[in-house]
Amino acid sequence: MGELWGQMGSLMATIMFFYTIFERFFPPHLRQNLQGYTQKFMNLVYPYVQITFPEFSGEGLKKSEAYTAIQTYLSANSSQRAKRLKAEVVKDSQTPLVLSMDDNEEIIDEFQGVKVWWAASKTNTNPQSFSFSYYPPPDAKRYYKLTFHKGHRDLITMSYIKHVLDQGREIAIKNRQLKLYTNNPSSGWYGYKSTKWSHIVFEHPATFETLALEHNKKEEIIKDLEKFKRGKEYYAKIGKAWKRGYLLHGPPGTGKSTMIAAMANFMNYDVYDLELTAVKDNSELRKLLIETPSKSITVIEDIDCSLDLTGQRKQKKEKSEDDEGPKDPLRKSEEEEDKKSSKVTLSGLLNFIDGIWSACGGERIIIFTTNFVDKLDPALIRRGRMDKHIELSYCGYEAFKVLAKNYLDIDSHHLFGRIGNLLKEINMTPADVAENLMPKSVSEDVEACLQNLIKALDEISKEEAWKKAEEETRLKEEKEKGESAQMDEENNEVITKEDVKENGFH
Q: Which of 55, 194, 267, 354 is the most exposed place for a label (fewest CB within 10 A)?
């Protein structure tokens, strides 16, 4: 064994000696020619192909999306296969501690029976600054190197790399934390670290399982969302932008906001809550749209109250007809306030929903909510803009059972039948039903909570009966007054005729 190591040492020393002679005495142009021939010879003998994916690319040295996707893909396997790992804290992720391959580590992956090798490497861009520091130099460039047999070139370049990138993006989307965004006023769009949208972590726990809604309606909405999510090729085929609009309408407290949260959690989409009153004009509205990425839900709640989209032209005309003269302070302050108000028009909003600019990004959902659907302009909610209209009404028996399961953890009870009969006759929103089912103290049990709900329904029933009786009484009094007035009018006519006869007129 010692003799073998001695021979290896002698061979290495010989190679280093000839390499030093070559570097020192051969002219540079001759060295380049020899290296070129050597590389060609190695290409004939070496049967493998290597592809490098650098961490940064482009003129601005922006972090490569391909590198990030590969890193995410390999991190799912490297913790089980690699011997040396490094841990990184990743923000906005459900798994903040991510394990990945350490530098100069290699793992083997397999695709359709073909083995490939992934290596994580780095190069020092300034070899003169070499030091024995424990930490890597700041100018080190990292990259992933993919090695495979040249006989599988087509499979790897056309299928495997696309598979890795797609899987990496899907894993990143699945692991990321959802965010809730709101738009900033345009006065704060510019400057250091200024953005058009501010966000917090979206932690709403609502799901379709906990949503107080009839089962059939839930299934209909879920199937519609699933079809949309898989509809990239279909939307391209029919020539439409990959987006879908939902109009949620119904009385207050029927679960419109909860529905939005359930849809976001189901689709794993970020939510962009657009406040129209903070948007200065149509141009700013378009800029905000450009800043919303794909796989997002843009929400305008209470669209009927957000802006007076139909009365702006009339108001402007009325103001232009005011008499000219010196402006008093009150009028001046009103004009200044008018300048600050939003100038978003109905036309601008329609273009925002389904104009040319709405096609940017792709895979986007737009949701409007309203308590009074009749107040909305028909052009705003027509099919093609708001593709699906979802009415959220008062609590029915199926919705009540969902709430009972959520709040009391029960599937049945002897009071369910009575409550179901009351809900058929009485209008109570799911929010009010949930409030009555929620225990108010640790001593309240299931029976007490259900009795609270029954008591509340009885009170509403009595109140509605009282209002109905009061309305009937009012109508009866108005009818009697009308009949009395008619009789008085008829009597006056009779008296008038008698006076005429007495005075000798015929």
A: 194
